[in-house]
Amino acid sequence: MTSTEIKISKNLENGIEFTCQMCGNCCRGFDEGEVYLYKEDILRLAKFLNIKGANALKNFAKKYAKIINDSFFWKEPGAQRGKTYRFKTLGFRFTGKDEHCHFLKDNICSVHEARPFQCRSFPFWQMMVSSRKNFEGYTKKCKGLQVLKGKSYTKEEILNWAKKEYEIEKKFFLEMKQNKFNILKVYPFLSKEMLEE
Ligand code: SF4
Ligand code: SF4
């Protein structure tokens, strides 16, 4: 699939209204999921929190991030078939009995300006935008999707978020592929111990 092929499901054809109701469920990975982090997310957060130097960045990644599984479907240009690749990526390390993001304070994001792309782009993730079933699945878990009131988003804006997400994932996948799926090469600030956890 290329980003231009992302299809919008019928329920979003006319756009929607959405405003976060601050239930904090997405900041708990909706109880079973992850909050994915890309290089730009880590660097933006580190800058926001005034984390300087290679060692400080290493410690920051160790405290707030964990290595998790990821997958991406890719078809080489000119190839007849593609395949799903499985590899490692980064996600937030959760904390507390309710397994919440470290930066969630009283159900409010304490790093709102520097929050990762996954947090910014919700609920317009590609898998939600192109599947009504997925979208409805998240509606049960997100108060904002239950209310569906507030800021208006057009079909084009929704598709733009989904495309951006796809491009970020693709960029990371291609970088991983180029580095033989060695996450320590792609993210030199990670420690080897994180791979063994
Ligand atoms: S789950 Fe929805 S309403 Fe709750 S904090 Fe996340 S975006 Fe906001
Ligand atoms: S960075 Fe903010 S919005 Fe994202 S999961 Fe953490 S508390 Fe929630």
In short:
Helices cover 39% and strands 18% of the residues. It has nine helices and nine strands.
What does this structure look like?
With 197 residues, the chain is of the alpha+beta class. It has one domain. It is built from nine helices and nine strands. Strands 2-4-3 form a three-stranded antiparallel β-sheet. It has a two-stranded antiparallel ribbon with strand order 1-9. The protein is globular and about 45 Å long. The mean pLDDT is 94. The structure holds iron/sulfur cluster (SF4) (2 copies). One iron/sulfur cluster binds at residues 20-26, 122, 142-144.
List the helices and strands and how they pair.
Blueprint (H helix, E strand, L loop, with lengths): L15 E3 L17 E2 L1 H10 L5 H11 E10 L8 E10 L1 E2 L4 E2 L2 E2 L2 E2 L7 H5 L4 H4 L2 H8 L3 H5 L3 E3 L1 H24 L4 H4 L5 H5 L1
The structure holds iron/sulfur cluster (SF4) (2 copies).
Strand order of the largest sheet: 2-4-3
Shape: globular
Largest sheet: 3 strands, antiparallel
Overall residue-averaged pLDDT value:
94
Level of helix content?
25-40%
Radius of gyration: 17 Å
Number of domains: 1
Structural class per helix/strand content? alpha+beta
Q: Beta-strand level of the residues, as a percent range? A: 15-25%
Strands, count: 9
